[in-house]
């Protein structure tokens, strides 16, 4: 259970974004009777997936060959980069979700007119961002786990679930409120990112870049056992530890509180409220 749920959430959220993007592209080509272009889209998607997997493997390889201090510093930088990625991602999706389908269709239409290379490149760029973010987040989230088995199973299960949901949405077999989905998962991801940032600060202290490793904020180890089911859940999801340093706690609070407030803050009400609509239309023509 340790680190499984946190990585499952990352795989589900990032995977569904990528799956929805692919569904929009495929549905657009099907509706406009341009199925001949589908292999080019799948080629771009396949290259993006391969690059993302290779990037993730590269991160783990680099971490293994570095010295202890270099590895701690590398993991700290990667953790901070992952926090930046996830923060940018959740706010970007909240802002552009409603126009995502239209923008993708416009870009794909232009790419089809240009030629094969443009279609492959467009599909590649549409997916590779989520793929590289997923690899970075997975690497950062997996550092706090005792083994890579839990994080790997979590990320794989999340990706499989996202692909299944994306296919069901494409086939119109299921409808979900994407606004609610991305709000809930975004809120949880903010807490996951706060835990990753906390771990990054811990790594900086381990590497000697930041002081105060032994300056504890509190010690709850007498009654908090990280090996219990709830300890594994809180540790794997949000990096809750029984003896955090003051710098770790300060980083967690300084990130989580303002980001959650900004993310959950309702946008200014429009002059005339509009009926709720799904974020994307990924269903093919019947």
Q: What class, by secondary structure content? A: mainly alpha
The tally of beta strands, per DSSP, is 0
State the separation between the terminal residues, measured CA to CA: 42 Å
Counting structural domains, the number is 1
Mean pLDDT: 83
User: Can you tell me the residue ranges where pLDDT is under 50 for at least 5 consecutive residues?
Assistant: 270-279
User: Which percent range describes the beta-strand content?
Assistant: under 5%
Return the string of H and E elements.
HHHHHHHH
Q: Count of helices?
A: 8
**Structural Rg:** 21 Å
Question: What global shape is seen?
Answer: elongated
- Largest β sheet strand count, sense and barrel closure: none
Helix content, binned percent: over 70%
Can I get a quick summary?
This protein is mainly alpha-helical.
Structure write-up:
- The protein has about 290 residues and is mainly alpha-helical.
- The chain has one domain (about 5-265).
- The chain is built from eight helices and no strands.
- The chain has helices at about 5-30, 40-65, 70-115, 115-140, 150-170, 180-205, 230-240, 245-265.
- Helix 1 (about 5-30) runs antiparallel to helix 4, helix 2 runs parallel beside helix 4 and helix 3 (about 70-115) runs antiparallel to helix 4 (about 115-140).
- The radius of gyration is 21 Å and the shape is elongated.
Detail the topology: elements first, then pairings:
Layout: H1 4-31, H2 38-65, H3 68-114, H4 116-142, H5 149-170, H6 178-206, H7 229-238, H8 246-264
Pfam families: FTR1
Membrane topology: Multi-pass membrane protein
Keywords: Membrane, Transmembrane, Transmembrane helix
